[in-house]
Write a structure and sequence with these properties.
The complex is a heterodimer of chains A (242) and B (334). Chain A has 242 residues and is of the alpha/beta class. Chain A contains nine helices and ten strands. Chain A has a domain of 66 residues. In chain A, helix 3 crosses helix 4 and helix 4 packs across helix 5. Chain A starts with a strand and ends in a 6-residue tail after the last helix. Chain B is mostly helical and 334 residues long. Chain B is built from 15 helices and two strands. A two-stranded antiparallel ribbon of chain B has the order 1-2. In chain B, helix 3 runs antiparallel to helix 13, helix 7 packs antiparallel against helix 10 and helix 12 crosses helix 13. The two termini of chain B are 21 Å apart.
């Protein structure tokens, strides 16, 4: 499989704290790639660098053959990277439908076409019946799905999911896992996710990267990674990984 | 064209709007001179309120210095008329770019260097104040002693030079208000409108879905400033005198934003309703005080303050969203 996203030796320092330390990894096209690690490991910082919120201090990020580490977030989205936020940020006063229309307008110039596409995406994420509700009135699981819908509507090649399963019940987690798997299988969308819910990670990811203190301590297939002594010591602990 | 214009509007809302328009069209036929001047003032604020609402209500950028664009429009057109005999409609072709450029300047400074929220509002006040002081010393426009236009003869209306009866100004402002309403609605239902709302709601999230926030905020401030300058041109030719102390003063900027706040920020009809409620009631109050022989300077300002307080406490989204529900005019569900 060819590489869609190539992260090469990126670092990010916030004053005294080295949040990400010379990190290198490749995300293959069409794959589902998970980044796990304890709190403060630098996962969200990594995401924010890929999504263009801030530029890395060193290193390069190559997406689809193009260097993107110095591009702003809107241009990164236009190149085909969609994202969700760890703390959900739908447009609160807009309806569910309008939230997704905004995303769909990225690659469409007419609102009617964007609305039709938004309806498609909303159906896919089980939100179609709630399309007239204000986003602020949704429950947390719904708001998380709405964020996924909004960024999917921008037509990304790579979707960055920042803890979309956190706070969901197991049945809700299973539902979103199956939706994501379906989308990945049908459209070949590459997914890079940060996740704490090991149930979801094990069910979804084809490959896992374990971050600790901003550096990769393990990388590989899920079955191998969860047996790695360094990973068990720093992150999983004695937790039952099912 | 018309079908597209009224698409998605309920029949009830159409009937109400048509009735309102007919009433306003007929008003000069039966209104007294005094009532007509009040109506002119109302439409003036209804128009500018809509222009301001594009920036604040749609794109979420708080401007507290819209008097700047009124003043630039007024002074540009008036000076061209006084010095070169250039009529207001041609003057408008200069006034709009001048105001739009000023808006672009403020927008560029603020949005490029990430001056947001309250600091952006302060910047808009500051530039308006700079203009006030600057025009106080600008000899070309007579500085602080004021710029005067040759006073109109009411014998006949000259639409081209905007010399004539107040009814002429009334109809011009009515047309401007209606056109602004249609324009704002079209904007809100277009791609740009969706992007503005997204930026207003959450700029970072908007950027994450590919919206170039800088660009769309610039477009908002330029459109809003350009639209506002038209009201300035009308102001100059209606009042026939311009003083920097009056035109650019911060109290003018505040007056502009009261209507939309009371009527409903971000709504289409709110700025118009707000202008009717505030200016209408304030004039009734002034009239009543005059008949009673009570002279209370500043009564109007106190009244504005009370209105604002009541609306913020009881209807923080403004009167229009509430009234719309009461009248059963809420938009049809998709």
């Amino acid at each position: 499989m060819s590489t869609l996203l190539k992260v090469d030796g990126i670092s990010k320092r916030f004053r005294g704290l080295l949040a990400v330390d010379k990190l290198t990894f490749d995300v293959p096209k069409g794959g589902i790639f998970a980044v796990i690690g304890p709190n403060g490991a630098g996962k969200t910082t990594l995401f924010n660098m890929i999504a263009g919120v801030f530029a890395p201090d060193t290193g390069s990020i190559t997406f689809d053959g193009e260097r993107i580490e110095n591009l702003p977030p809107d241009q990164i989205c236009r190149r085909g990277i969609g994202r969700t936020f760890q703390i959900v940020r739908p447009f609160p006063a807009l309806s569910v439908e309008d939230n997704v229309i905004v995303g769909a307008l990225m690659r469409r110039h007419h609102v009617s076409g964007a609305r039709a596409h938004a309806h498609e995406v909303l159906r896919r994420l089980d939100l179609y019946d709630k399309r007239a509700q204000r986003a602020s009135s949704l429950t947390l699981p719904d708001r998380k799905r709405l964020e996924v819908a909004r960024s999917l509507a921008t037509g990304p090649k790579l979707l960055l999911l920042d803890e979309v399963m956190a706070g969901l019940r197991p049945t809700e987690t299973d539902r979103i896992v199956s939706i994501l798997k379906e989308i990945n299988r049908e459209s070949g969308l590459t997914i890079l996710l940060i996740e704490h819910v090991m149930r979801a990670v094990m069910a979804l990811a084809g490959r896992i990267l374990v971050l600790h203190h901003g550096a990769a301590i393990a990388q590989g297939a899920p079955e191998d990674v969860v047996r790695d002594p360094a990973v068990i010591h720093s992150y999983l602990g004695a937790e039952d990984i099912g | 064209m018309i079908a597209r214009l009224i698409e998605g509007v309920s029949r009830r809302a159409l009937v109400v709007m048509a009735a309102l328009l007919v009433l306003l069209l007929a008003a000069p036929l039966f209104a007294s001179d005094y009532l007509l001047t009040v109506l002119i003032l109302i439409l003036y604020f209804a128009y500018i309120g809509q222009a301001w609402n594009i920036m604040m209500g749609f794109a979420g950028q708080l401007s507290l210095g819209h008097a700047l664009y009124v003043g630039l429009g007024a002074y540009t057109a008036a000076a061209l008329y006084v010095h070169f005999g250039i009529g207001p409609w041609l003057g408008l072709l200069v006034a709009i770019p001048v105001a739009a450029l000023a808006g672009a300047f403020i927008g560029f400074l603020a949005f490029r260097f990430k001056v947001g929220g309250v600091y952006f509002a302060i910047l808009t006040i500051a530039v308006a104040e700079f203009a006030r002081v600057g025009f106080d010393h600008l000899a070309w426009t007579n500085g602080s002693s004021g710029l005067f236009l040759p006073v109109a003869q009411y014998a006949h209306n000259d639409l081209w030079l905007l010399r004539g009866h107040p009814a002429m100004f009334y109809y011009i402002l009515l047309a401007a208000t209606v056109l602004a309403f249609i324009f704002c609605r079209a904007l809100l239902q277009s791609r740009i409108g969706y992007f503005w709302l997204a930026i207003r709601e959450d700029e970072e999230a908007a950027r994450s879905v590919g919206i170039d926030a800088f660009r769309y905020k610039m477009i908002a401030v330029v459109i809003s400033a350009g639209m506002t300058s038209f009201a300035g041109v009308i102001y100059a030719f209606y009042y026939n005198n311009l003083f920097p102390e009056q035109v650019f003063h911060i109290s003018r900027s505040i007056e502009i934003i009261l209507g939309p706040i009371v009527g409903g920020i971000g709504t289409l009809f709110g700025p118009i309703l707000g202008a009717f409620v505030l200016t209408g009631l304030a004039e009734i109050l002034t009239g009543a005080l005059n008949t009673l022989g009570v002279d209370l300077p500043g009564a109007k300002q106190v009244f504005y303050g009370i209105c604002l307080l009541l609306v913020i406490m009881a209807l923080p989204d403004g009167i229009w969203p509430w009234l719309k529900r009461r009248l059963g005019l809420a938009e049809r569900e998709p």
